[in-house]
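Example for reference:
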Amino acid sequence: MYQQDNYLNAGFTQRFINEATLYKGLVLGRVIAQYKDLLRISTGYNELLAEISGKLRYQASSLADFPAVGDFIMVDRSSNENGNALIHHVLTRKSVFLRKAAGTSHDVQVVAANIDTVFICMALNNDYNLRRMERYLSIAWDSGAVPVVVLTKADLCQAVIEKVAEVEGVSPGVEILVTSSLTKDGEKPIHAYLSPGKTVAFIGSSGVGKSTLINRLLGEDLIETNETRKDDKGRHTTTHRELLMIPSGGAVIDTPGMREMGLENADLSKAFADIGELAEQCKFGDCTHQREPGCAVRHAIETGELEEDRLQSYLKLEKEATYEGLNAKQIEKKKMDNMFSDFGSMKNVRDFIKNKNRRK
């Protein structure tokens, strides 16, 4: 019988405890680190090394079906006394971050799973970039985790209030925190989102102070950090994904690969909710917000309600999401389908071109 109190700090909530009872004879665990061929898991009482069972490998239809850091899994043992544990099942994920798998044309892999809150970090100095923030928000909303914007290095900015207002304009419905690495309690605003049973993660560009914030939450320098270069940029030092326990309660996933994620999965409807609401008022349902008459989005730009840059960012991400994961041939076909959508299928396009040439 699982005792919830023993698991809570590592995220073993009742939801996963209940699902685990479906697998008799197996032990509930959580992936806390991922290496090349092995995974390190916690059972709540101890840690052990594990590998994926042959049956799970056979049943997996894609890389996304394999366990990743943050996943709750069912294993065949609770210690390594008789060898590595075997992972037989991955429990249902409540949130998942995906990225394109290396060396494949369209397969994706899980970067991290079962995150409750994702802190999107952006520094208020040279890293400040609203368009990048929109990209991160699109990915975060789609994951199922709740995004929270963390603006770091406030001590290096002379216009914090103005910058916060700008960020509010591109992150509707998202909480915004302002931190500084110079103060002893610079991470204090983040503690409100931490509690036993909760898992958080930090994403953002290199050098924005993610590792510093994580170390402060952990109470010691477990995550290596590099001194910021003169151009205010840093370089990633973490080489593998890992889940770490926070002494005050909860856990944090350190995920260096999350900055490399593309738009394999993105929720533009939430990240650009303001444009979505305006688009519902457009005269035409398939309005592209370019030159169509009765376009509410264009009207909002003309009146100053919406910035042109934000619309262009939306259109760019929408296009990127459309072609993400396709090879060159597939992209060309997609473009042709879009160009000649009024003609129906590609066969109709070819017939149209053929007949046009005959008339010459």
Q: What stands out?
A: Residues 308-323 form the longest helix (16 residues). The chain has three domains: 4-92, 112-260, 268-358.
